[in-house]
């Protein structure tokens, strides 16, 4: 690209930071406007498994794949599917050290560690913390302009919305809004699990465990630091999450109400909720329409959830956000003309995101049917065939 374009990235999540990093590797400066006050302002959520074709490929372009490896946890790659009596329906073991194939595996990493890796790789001042973007518009000569919450305006040559599900940038290119999926999560966390909750640790194993029945689920995953994160999931009206029934400020009452949703489930499974510590956080699951896309809008594009928010049931959102960021940066370094570069980025991104969004929507519908466990066993048997997964 000729000259030095002014690139404003709204949102310092995994998509926006990967974009800024790969641009930096190619000598292009950008500014990331992030509403959080600092890197530690907010819990970054659970563990992610990084796919070789998307998340890991993005890290390769970012020059960070080798630094990622020691931070990742391939040993936490086990998958278990259980019924509500805790009987195992499917199990896929984590690779043994001698059987590992770095090119094929999807090692886990805590989100915070991954975000910190990206943040630490950016020049000082790239991320403007505490800079909430309040509005965006096409200003003089059609140049994208953003307005910060303190009233300041910034004109750019390229505006990238990397600002997640409720993107402020998206309305510049599209009328689409996220739609509630019909399923809500409640996040719970257990600390010091090996010492304080050995039975829970044994039940979950080294990786991720889904218990599915009655159109509900308890999904537990090993996180770093001897923690297990639990998503209790159920079909519920959208208002349920906002009703105050599960109040993060009153974890004792919230825990009891959540347990009431799983009355006849195995006590070991109920312990995933009963033994949790800290606040319980309700999280309704939304998605953009499958196949969301937009007409080319000069000087503006989207990456990650802003472009293709989907439910977590394909394990793809963060992986795709990172790949989007890397591929947009590469397109900008390859093409001199901005619009040609944006076209080159968007053209393969749309169908790639559509495929993952369709998969995640199918999985969500299937897993929360009365026979959800059977559907999940079939799905994961197909995904892991050849890598040791087996139905019981
Ligand atoms: C429960 C759950 C489990 C998941 N598990 C997985 C998984 O296992 N694997 C996987 O690949 N994906 C998973 N996902 C999906 C994944 O979390 C997202 O797809 C991913 O975080 C998207 O990254 P992003 O950078 O596009 O957006 P985000 O991570 O949402 O980052 C957006 C950033 O923009 C900032 N921002 C927002 N608005 C503004 C504004 N107006 N001004 C300035 N800054 C702003 C936010 O503070 C945030 O830092 C999961 C999602 C959920 C909810």
Automatic annotation (TrEMBL):
Record-linked HAMAP family: TetX_monooxygenase
Record keywords: Cytoplasm, FAD, Flavoprotein, Monooxygenase, NADP, Nucleotide-binding, Oxidoreductase
Domain of life per record: Bacteria
Main location: cytoplasm
Name of the protein in its database record: Flavin-dependent monooxygenase
Naturally occurring in which organism (per UniProt): Streptomyces violaceusniger (strain Tu 4113)
Compositional bias ranges of the Basic and acidic residues kind: 97-107
GO molecular function, one term: FAD binding
